[in-house]
Description:
Strand order of the largest sheet: 3-2-1-4-5-7-6
Protein name: N-acetylglucosaminylphosphatidylinositol deacetylase
Radius of gyration: 25 Å
Strand content: 5-15%
Mean pLDDT: 87
Helix content: 40-55%
Shape: elongated
GO molecular function: N-acetylglucosaminylphosphatidylinositol deacetylase activity
EC number: 3.5.1.89
Low-confidence stretches: none
Transmembrane segments: 31-50, 257-275
Distance between the termini: 75 Å
Number of helices: 11
Structural class: alpha/beta
Number of strands: 7
Order of helices and strands: HEHHEHEHEHEHHEHHEH
Family: Belongs to the PIGL family.
Amino acid sequence: xxxxxxxxxxxxxxxxxxxxxxxxxxxxxxxxxxxxxxxxxxxxxxxxxxxxxxxxxxxxxxxxxxxxxxxxxxxxxxxxxxxxxxxxxxxxxxxxxxxxxxxxxxxxxxxxxxxxxxxxxxxxxxxxxxxxxxxxxxxxxxxxxxxxxxxxxxxxxxxxxxxxxxxxxxxxxxxxxxxxxxxxxxxxxxxxxxxxxxxxxxxxxxxxxxxxxxxxxxxxxxxxxxxxxxxxxxxxxxxxxxxxxxxxxxxxxxxxxxxxxxxxxxxxxxxxxxxxxxxxxxxxxxxxxxx
Length: 291
């Protein structure tokens, strides 16, 4: 009798197990189907957005800031390609006079002289003339993720260039610095210092490059719909145009280690830049959030 009861229990457990496995497989199949349909739908949306905005609109209407004299402020050589490539490329194409202020020579690995030459070569590919490049060599601004850059020093350098070059538009990092590099963020805090101290020339409009989460950062072209939905100022490139930014980045030969090749392949910043206009009120709000 006990043997028969044991058989019944085993049969019940076995049937329950089979039913559970079957239900689980159906759930997994449906889940994969829904995800696949969602991905296909999203890819179609990306293609529609690309065709509508990247291919059909005239170049001069795509994301124009209405700028004539633009200063791009970066922390290191290669930042101009890794992060600001689409903005620099498009501004040059739209006829703006683009200047680049690089706050260090990238001497973190003792390659400062080499990286200086690479910066000039890369900017030539992007369309920035040699005479429009300003590279700072200041012992207080060393390329080092552990170094705390002096905000007043950066602010003074930026103000000098804005006034000397009669700049009407300034573009640089936001507080996140795209990669959370402290040197990048220091540039933003220098802008905040200038706004708070009322040292920012009134005629100069300031834009910061949006930092995004790591998923969006490596979506590449697939971030187009989100970029259009979440930002009113954006610069993006056709496939053929993005290859020029890639060529410029590859001029930084000392920095092209294996993971940078992956970055060039997948990063949205090689094809898309979204910008946010900031003023004193925005700065005060961000500083209040920090507090």
